[in-house]
Amino acid sequence: MNDTPRSLLFWGGSAPMDLGRDVGTRLLRQAAARKVGTQVTVEFPDVPELAALAGALHRTEVEDPAAAAAWARGRQFDVVLGVREQVQVALAEVARAVGAPGNPPEAVRTVRDKDRCRQALREAGLPQPEFRLCADLAEARAFLEGTAGPWIVKPRDASGSLGVRKVTAPGELADAVAALPARTEFIVEQFVEGPEYSVEGVFLRGEPRVLAVTEKKLLPPPNFVEAGHVLPADLPTGLRQEFEQAVTGALKALELRFGVFHVELWSTADGPVLGEVHVRNGGDWIHLMLEHAIPGLDLFGLVIDDALGSDTGAYELTPSRAAAVRFLAPPPGRVSRVAGWDEVLRHPAVLKADLTVRPGDVVGEIRESYDRAGYLVVGADTPRQAAELAERLAAAVRFETEAETEEAGA
């Protein structure tokens, strides 16, 4: 038995909202359960729960790869993990600098830039929609003229559905480009018809291992914000295997080999078409649903065990029950009353729930994940039961809103 103290660096911490706190504290607790000492690097204001659980807290630049590598040189850690999308390239550089297992930084750069990832997948022989990296509105118009619509406009490097808009006619393009979060290069691509899913998994001994497929439910276009998820998706065995083969083939082609992965895809008449690839856990409480659906699973603990060379063969990694999440989307206006929420909280199947708006708050169009008004996560025996329960409870929450006058809005 190896009694040498082991150490983990949690790079970049986690976001201070409820979801981020849950992910970060879960990771640190799972490390502590394995008697692994932890340190955390942060840049924005502390999440107090992380400071309480970690052995040390460092303030430093966490998103810049060169600065991150400079900070890490000369330090030693057995495991380096991170959960925020924006830190993944820096995280890979840190792992390399301290000699810990990790993904090649260049591979992570590829998946962080959506156009580079699309091109790499296409070169690997995997179906991809036509796309173009555009610097301005004129280049985007030229792409629309040469391709069949509808189309999607999205940032080159963002998350949380920020700035993603559907364009059904050329006349809608200017508004979609104006809605992007920054006037830098952006992507225009053909819209892919078909239901959306994501594939969740981990790398064990450098090989991708799928844990579950998640069904995604979206709010109506033009924005593409998730309304909810069901895990595992209720799929025929053959279709699930198609998804797994496409995703594991893509991860290998992209030369990824460590940590947690979350890969989005569409199911089309011609087979799966891969979307975005992430070397982190899925958002929207997918980590919680995954650990509920696979009893006994420690998602981050599994990665830690693998990094430390522990035997992971004894783990049961197949879902035996199900979970679902639904997000709340009240009509626009000033919220005057919320009814039914207390009844939702008392339901024994609710795993996690929170409201992010209160009476007096003004809600508008939901354009990104942070605009949603709350969520509820439920567990059940089957995917269908979980989905139906989540829908029923979400429908029981009633938001009463009043139209905003121009004076009140000001």
UniProtKB/TrEMBL annotation:
Residues 118-308 form the ATP-grasp domain. The keyword Phosphoprotein does not apply. The keyword Cell wall biogenesis/degradation does not apply. SUPFAM superfamilies: Glutathione synthetase ATP-binding domain-like. It comes from the Bacteria. Keywords: ATP-binding, Ligase, Nucleotide-binding. InterPro entries: ATP-dep_AA_Ligase (IPR052032), ATP-grasp (IPR011761), LAL_C2 (IPR040570). This is ATP-grasp domain-containing protein. It comes from Streptomyces spororaveus.
